[in-house]
Structures are given as C-alpha cells and as structure tokens.
User: Which sequence fits this backbone?
C-alpha cells in the first residue's frame, strides 16, 4: 500500500462525514476480532457508511490504492470472517440497519445489511410475518447472507441461500449491481445471487438484501424429549424425518450442554441427551403430528416427552438453546472455545456424533455435542487454553478428526459457519477439484484482491 | 473448424463405439430442433455416450478442435436450448439414463442425466418416495437441471436449484468435477452447484446428478375450482397463499385452455377460468386446509369447488393439465406455438394476466393464459402461422409486451423455461448490470466457446 495511515484517514474523510471515519483504539480493537478462536488483527481504520453511494465511493478508493476492505456486522462470526488479517478498512454496517420495504402480499422484505435478524422479526410481527433463519446468535442479515447461515429452523424453511431473492452488491471497483429480482423464481441467466450468498465478502459487498419471509403459523408447539443415549436421541430425530413429520425444529442437546444450559439459564432440565422440538402448522395437522411423534419417540426409547404450547415457556426453551455458546464461554472463563461444524447425510449422523464424543474424551478436553440434527449438521464446543500449545493442538486435532470423518462419508467441513480463516485447509480436501474454478471467479471479480483477502480460498 | 465431416466422424469413432456415432439424416433432423418455435439447425454428428469417461473424451477432443457441443435430452426445451445453431456435435444422453443409487434414509437419489422425471418417479415409488419437480413435459433430469426447471409443485417443494445437491460436470477441457456433496446444506466455498444449475449447457456438461427426494405424503387431495373471471381465480389463489394454506399445487387454466383440454383429454370440465389445486400432508392437516380453502374461495366468487380424493380421477386431472401444450399443438395443426414465461411478484399477477389477455386480443392471434400462480409464474400459448411474417411479428410483439410488463414490476423474463435463444434480448434488459460478470465466468470456464455456443449470453 502506497499510502500512510494519515493519508488514508484524510482520503476517507473526503468521501464520508469525518465523524464516521475513525482510528480510535477501542473501536479498532472491537473490529479486530469476532466470536471465533482466531487471533485478532487490527484494521487500519474503521468506517461507518450510511448509504450504498458511500460504500461504492469507499470501494472505488480502496481498489485504486489496493487497500483491503472487510465488511463487519456484529462480529458474531465463528470462523474469523470479520478479522482484517491484512489490515486495511473495516466497513461497519451498523448505521445501515433499516427495513427499507415490506411487501406482505408478496412475502418479501428489503433490508439493509446491518439489520439483525431479531430487529427484522420485530418489524415483521405486525404483518403476521416472520423470518425463520435462526443461527442462534443475533447476527446481521448481511453477515448471515455472506456466510450462507442457517440454524434451528432450516430443516423446515431452508438456509439463507433459499431466502435471498435479490442482492444489491458493490463490486470491487465500486460498481453497483442487482443480482436478482422480486419474483419467486427465475431461469434468467447464471444465478449470481447464489454465488454471492456464502462468498464471505470476497466477491463483493452487500448493501441491500431482499428476502423471502413467511406467515406466522396458526399453531406452534415446542417440546423436549429426553433419551438415555445420544444415539437414541438422534435415531429418534431421524425416525420423525423418515415418517414424513413436517417438523420445524429438531435440535440435539447432549448431557454436557444441558448442564451448561441449566447453569446459565436457570432451568432444571434433566441431565440427559435431549431433543428440543418444534411443530408449525394448522391446528389439526400439528395435533396429528404430535400424536405420531409420541408413538415414534416411544419406539426409540424416549424417557420423557414434554410439550410447551405456552409461548413464554416456548421462548424460554429456545432462549436456553440460543444461549448455549455463551453458557460455555461464561462457564469456562479461562478457556477459549473452538466450535466444529460438520454436516453429513442423516444416515451417518448418529455414528458421527458417537465418534466425536469418543475423540473428545480421548483428547482430555472438555467438550459437548449439539446440533441441527434434522439437517445432519452438528457442532462440538471444545474448551481449551489458548496459551497452552498442547491444548491448542488437541482442539485442532479433534476438529480435524471430525471433519475427516464427515468428508469420508460425503459430508461437508462446514454446514453453516463458513470457511473464513479456519476451514481453508479443509476446503482444499473437500473441493480440491473445484477450487481452480472458484479461484478463476475470485480473480475476475476482484483482480486486485482487496475484498476480504485471505478468506475462503487458499493463497497461491 | 479445421476438420472435415469425414475426419470428425473418424475421430469420434476412435473415442466411442462406432455404432454410437452417426450422421444418419433422420437422427440429425431429430437433433436439429426441440419443442420450441425456433428454427431447426442440423448438427454435424450425433453421439450417444454411455459413460462419464466417454463424455470427457468427446469434450477433450471437441475443445482441441474448437467444435461446438450441445447436450440433448428428449428435446422438450421451449427456448431452443438443444438446437445446435453453430453445428458441431449433439450429445444425446438417452443411453445414460440409469438410477445409480437410492438412499432412502437420506432422501437422496443419484441419477444419470438422460433419465426422465417419470422414470425417476417409477423407480422411487417402491421406497415410498417421489421427486416433485414437474414442468409438464416428461423432460430428462439433465435437461431440467440445465434450465433450472420448475412447475406445478414448486409453490410447495421449490425449483430444480433447490433439489440438486451435487453435480458431476465435465468441463470444456474434459476435466471431471463434483460441485457439491451429500449433506443437506453446506457453506463450503462458492456454491458452484447453483451456478451450473440453469447454465443451459454453456458452462459444462452434466453426467451425474444427486437430487433431494421426498416422502409420498400421507394424504393427497386434488380439486377444481371455477370462477367467473381470471381475476377472481387469481385472487382466490393469492388468498390461499396469504392465509398460509400450505398448498402443493395451484394452477390457473383459463377458458381457452379448458376448451382445448376438453377436446384433447375428453373431459367435460366447465368452460370457466379454473384453478387446479392439490393438497399434501397428514390427514387432519389436509382436511383443515380443505375446509379453510372452501371458505376463502367462496369469498372470492368461486362458482364451484370439486375435490378428487380418488387417485385415478386425480391423475386424470393432472394428465389433462400436462397435456395442455400438446392439446394446442394438435388443435391447431397449421400453426406454430410460442409460449411466454414471465414470473412476477404475486401481488402483480392478476393484473398481468388481465393485461396479457388484452394484448393477445388486440393482436388478433388465438392464445390462452395458464400458469403456476402460486409462484407468480404464468404462460400464454400463442398460435401463429410461421410462414406469415405478419403473424410472426404479432406473436413476437405479444411476447415482448408481456415481458416488458413483468420487468417493469420487478419480475423476470423467464420463470422456468430458460434463456436459450429466444430470451437473450430480454436478459439484456433484465440483467444489463450483471451480464459482464456472467460473461467473465463463461469466458473463464469455456475459453474456446465450444459449450452450447450462442445460448444464454449475447454474442459480442
């Protein structure tokens, strides 16, 4: 980069209001990290744009000086996406957090990237609508689109890529494009929307996102089912899917996780492998599903099955689930947490979780397993001392073994967290044959390699 | 091309069994056209490969001599995709039509591209599974993946892009890649699967396709609802969606279409704008949906609503719907048919169909409107004399006006048929800002422009 810190600041202040360009130390530190275990790196400057035009001006400038730019939402990434490992400009989207348009009859909403999913759901409620994708954290829609996030409801409603109808993207050279449209489907040319979703800020910067939203179901019932073993719990979940029960959520929470949940959320759930369930539909349909679920789970050695129709108790249950990652962080203040994220064909899931338990136990680390078992996606939370090289290695080894197990069975190294920094070595194993195509696309879309450099693709 | 016909034949016969390489006139003619109104062009040779290795050898050869290759399924394209407008090699996939693997517990199937959707459903039935995407024609899975097909059930189950988990693709240079995996979701790198689906043979040739399949629902009920006007029918359909009824099919068939249906399928449906409906789910849920549907359609001036639970009557109804295109072709033996294919936000649909009726009437052509109204996608069938330049122009004008109407309202020029030859000029209007990116991808993936040249993208 042929520009000093002072010049950089000066130039950016010509482009946007100088109060929204900063090298304040605390702010730089906040933008040096995310919720992952990866090492923080400071950006040189943080900017807070208010419009697409400002983002475009920033990129045009950055591109001409070959300065890295890294988009930043709320920093809830678990794979280091928001860490500016090559320095440069961190673009914080917190001022671009508006709901721009709701089209209830079309089940569409157009938002800015800095809006969080909870804020979106608050805005949708009065229309009887909701946005289902739920990764746990209250992430921004921009971040969720960038990583192709999913979560507890994806078994029913799908992943981010299924919801995004249109993206306004600022390209590396500052040009602004729209990738899609407002219709429910299209066969009009190459589907660039799907290419940008999950590209983790490496192909362009999102400034507007049009999403599909859903009517709030007539009936929602949540439930908790406890089992004697994780294997029984997973097999129970798979039996619901095989029977065609249209379940909206089916989450495995193992004994270690239930312990942390109880401590952190002041619940008294039995310390057993548990499925957290949710059913959405019309009243009669949900009632029939629940009856059938009881039969199927009984046949899979379910110890206890409790339903919550009351919306407060239901919220409590999902809040407990959502706070799980924070429960671990608070429960082990001296440790860092590494979260694994494989996804396998459902038929291989229960054995994969049993294998993971074994690998964790062998490592001597404390860890738990939990996951979106309806999708075949599960996580382990591994607690380790980041200053103890031996523990770091142990955590890395557990992660590697779980990933290798999944890849050998047709699975993926990341179901929903993305590649970021931590999974590049596994992307090379999973998609060795297509990395050259990905690299071609990256080189064409971002010839100066300014867009979140060092993420997703291996550096040549 | 620096190779004669005879040399071409000779070289190809070195690569695959000579009985499967032909310049037989009848076979060349069969591969010169599809079901669209576009002008046939003969390929120079037709090959019938039996394996991925053979396809790879053919492409490697074609690439080194810069010979165009055009994949061919059953030729049911409606936009000229299979027409080899630059000559070259037509690759017919009829011998690559196997179901390679069914994984019932994972709801996955792996097939060859020449398999048709009806053949696939026959193979799935014994597992209690089905593949929902239904474009009307009994197209091949390869063709449906290439055009990102959809159809009557997409309102519930989604489009081809939502079903394809993995593609085996032979690239222009003969290299063979896999784009995805077996897990239900992944955030592992750029989503090339979605880029190849809908790329219409211009980025690579598919040799294996892994698809998501579904359990056959406990209860299926079909129905017919007649209305006094198309507007009432569409508004009725929209009211079902807004009420959150989880409908599996909702098809508009206008009066002109019902007339052709009755003639061709020997039915005696009332000559009224009609919705063909289908409900999938558990018994209690479907019953509640049906009760609610009656109320909602009554409120939208529905004249008559008849349900068919009997599977034969249900099949008859959908067969009649599927044969509609053929009904028109047989009903007007001296005419060609042009089919329009716009998709709009649902809130704009009823006005769009009313507008289309007006435009057709003003043109003096015979034409009908029908469509997958749950997605906002509708077609008009325009009958014209291809030897009468005035009628050709009239049909083109109607098409243009309908497309422009849709684009002005955030819609797309093609909901499901693809760009092919006929929609390139409209792609330029719809995605002027992203065509340069599409072109970059095409140039990188197919530098010698041998893959279905002249389709999708405008030629520079």
Assistant:
């Amino acid at each position: 980069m042929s520009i000093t810190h002072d010049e950089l600041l000066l130039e950016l202040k010509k482009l946007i209001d100088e109060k929204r360009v900063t090298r304040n130390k605390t702010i730089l530190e906040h933008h040096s990290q995310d919720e992952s275990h990866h090492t923080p790196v400071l950006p040189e400057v943080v900017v807070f744009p208010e419009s697409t035009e400002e983002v475009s001006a920033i990129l045009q400038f950055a591109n001409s000086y070959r300065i890295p730019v890294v988009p930043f939402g709320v920093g809830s990434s678990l794979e280091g996406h928001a860490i500016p490992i090559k320095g440069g400009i961190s673009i914080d989207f917190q001022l671009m957090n508006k709901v721009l348009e709701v089209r209830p009859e079309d089940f569409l909403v157009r938002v800015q990237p800095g809006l969080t999913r909870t804020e979106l759901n608050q805005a949708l409620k009065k229309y009887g609508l909701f946005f289902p994708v739920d990764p746990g954290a209250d992430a921004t829609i921009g971040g969720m689109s960038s990583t192709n996030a999913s979560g507890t409801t994806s078994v029913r409603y799908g992943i981010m890529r299924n919801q995004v109808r249109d993206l306004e993207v600022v390209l590396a050279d500052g040009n602004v494009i729209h990738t899609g449209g407002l219709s429910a489907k299209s066969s009009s040319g190459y589907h660039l929307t799907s290419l940008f979703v999950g590209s983790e800020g490496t192909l362009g910067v999102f400034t507007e996102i049009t999403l599909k939203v859903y009517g709030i179901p007539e009936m929602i019932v949540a439930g908790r089912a406890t089992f004697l073993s994780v294997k029984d719990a997973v097999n129970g979940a798979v039996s619901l899917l095989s029977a065609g029960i249209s379940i909206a959520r089916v989450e495995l929470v193992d004994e270690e996780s239930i312990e942390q949940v109880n401590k952190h959320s002041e619940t008294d759930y039995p310390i057993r492998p548990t499925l957290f369930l949710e059913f959405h539909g019309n009243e009669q349909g949900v009632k029939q599903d629940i009856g059938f679920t009881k039969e199927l789970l009984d046949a899979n050695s379910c110890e206890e099955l409790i339903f919550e129709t009351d919306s407060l108790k239901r919220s409590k249950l999902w809040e407990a689930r959502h706070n799980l990652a924070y429960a671990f962080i608070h429960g082990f203040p001296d440790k860092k947490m590494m979260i694994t994220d494989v996804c396998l064909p459902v038929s291989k899931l229960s054995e994969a979780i049993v294998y993971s338990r074994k690998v964790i136990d062998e490592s001597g680390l404390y860890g738990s397993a939990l996951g979106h078992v309806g999708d075949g996606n599960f996580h382990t939370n591994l607690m380790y001392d980041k200053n103890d090289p031996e523990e770091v290695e142990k955590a890395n080894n557990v992660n590697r073994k779980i990933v290798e197990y999944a890849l050998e069975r047709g699975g993926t190294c990341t179901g929903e967290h993305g590649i970021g920094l931590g999974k590049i070595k596994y992307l090379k194993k999973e998609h060795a044959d297509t990395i050259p195509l990905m690299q071609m696309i990256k080189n064409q879309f971002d010839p100066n390699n300014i867009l979140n450099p060092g993420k997703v693709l291996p550096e040549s």
Chain A has four domains: 5-92, 99-215, 219-323, 332-427. The domain at 99-215 of chain A is CATH 3.30.465.10 (Uridine Diphospho-n-acetylenolpyruvylglucosamine Reductase; domain 3). Chain A touches chain B through 94 residues (CB under 8 Å).
